[in-house]
């Protein structure tokens, strides 16, 4: 059975809940955010499915440090139109020109809000660089929320109950590396023929062949100034997707826990619920 989205023009509304807790070298931080999500299935582009995702009423509990940047930059992803790639994940953003058009006004506000911050200019230049490259901009969204839970790629696979398929995920911006690559096993664990619902469970582990563990190890040894300090990144990663008869999410959840004993603890939990 291959899962795929149906009913062109249909609009789905969701609530997104996100929790993040981090601890690095004894410094703790946490953030809770919430948003309303609206998803519309549009006409296909070059035979690829196309969707519009609008994120409304975004709010978060923490507005300090880097979390403040998240809120200030929210407007850039307030409405994103994109096609899916062959893996069923975000492929190419279709309205990047209109997103970029709003950047000068957002940049003015950012310069006022973050004028005294040490890395403000570097972050601003990084944002501009991403906005100039559609491929890079799309990739920055692909494994973030809510896009991952809406378009995880499970909809493009052939499934039989209790048989596994292989997938891929990323944890972006991890210490001094761009990503933690994750290999996933995905399978349908339950099919409710009466309600016509499908439960798909996903488990992930670090792709050790592609992960730049050596860069992490060097950083931790410098910070700790101890040659035998633990440096290996440990990961626990789980997703659950309950889909309706048309294979739209009824409720999805993602839980990731990445840690280095004695140095780093990073936990993220995201829930997407149909309203």
What is the fold's blueprint, element by element?
Elements: E1 11-24, E2 27-45, E3 48-60, H1 66-72, E4 79-84, E5 90-93, H2 96-101, H3 103-113, H4 120-131, H5 134-142, H6 147-150, E6 164-174, E7 177-192, E8 197-206, H7 213-224, E9 234-243, E10 249-260, E11 264-274
Secondary-structure element order, N to C: EEEHEEHHHHHEEEHEEE
Strand content: over 45%
CATH topological fold name: Lipovitellin-phosvitin complex, beta-sheet shell regions
Average per-residue pLDDT, rounded, comes to 89
Name of the top-level CATH class? Mainly Beta
CATH architectural grouping: Roll
Number of strands: 11
Question: What structural class results from the helix and strand content?
Answer: alpha+beta
| Major beta-sheet overview | 11 strands, antiparallel
Silhouette: globular
Could you characterize the architecture of this molecule?
The structure is a single chain. This protein has 275 residues and is of the alpha+beta class. The chain has one domain: Lipovitellin-phosvitin complex, beta-sheet shell regions (Roll). Helix content is 22%, strand content 46%. The chain has helices at 66-72, 96-101, 103-113, 120-131, 134-142, 147-150, 213-224, and strands spanning 11-24, 27-45, 48-60, 79-84, 90-93, 164-174, 177-192, 197-206, 234-243, 249-260, 264-274. The longest helix has 12 residues, at 120-131. The protein is globular, with a radius of gyration of 20 Å.
């Amino acid at each position: 059975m291959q899962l795929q989205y149906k009913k062109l023009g249909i609009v789905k509304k969701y609530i997104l809940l996100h929790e993040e807790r981090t601890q690095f070298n004894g410094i703790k931080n946490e953030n809770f955010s919430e948003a309303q999500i609206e998803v519309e299935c549009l006409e296909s582009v070059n035979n690829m499915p196309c969707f519009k995702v609008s994120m409304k009423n975004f709010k978060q509990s923490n507005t300090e440090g880097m979390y403040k940047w998240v809120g200030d930059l929210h407007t850039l992803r307030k409405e994103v139109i994109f096609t899916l790639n062959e893996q069923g994940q975000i492929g190419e953003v279709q309205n990047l020109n209109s997103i970029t058009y709003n950047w000068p006004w957002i940049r003015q506000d950012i310069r006022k809000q973050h004028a005294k911050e040490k890395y403000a200019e570097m972050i601003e230049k990084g944002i501009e660089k991403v906005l100039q490259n559609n491929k890079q901009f799309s990739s920055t969204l692909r494994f973030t929320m809510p896009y991952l839970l809406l378009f995880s790629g499970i909809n493009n696979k052939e499934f039989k109950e209790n048989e596994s398929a292989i997938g891929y995920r990323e944890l972006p911006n991890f210490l001094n590396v761009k990503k933690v690559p994750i290999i996933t096993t995905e399978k349908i664990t339950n099919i409710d023929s009466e309600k016509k619902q499908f439960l798909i469970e996903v488990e992930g582990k670090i792709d050790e062949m592609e992960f730049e563990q050596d860069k992490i190890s060097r950083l931790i040894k410098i910070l700790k100034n101890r040659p035998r300090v633990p440096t290996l990144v440990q990961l626990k990663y789980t997703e659950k997707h309950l889909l309706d008869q048309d294979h739209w999410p009824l409720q999805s959840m993602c839980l990731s826990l990445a840690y280095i004993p004695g140095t780093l603890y990073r936990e993220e939990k995201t829930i997407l619920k149909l309203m």
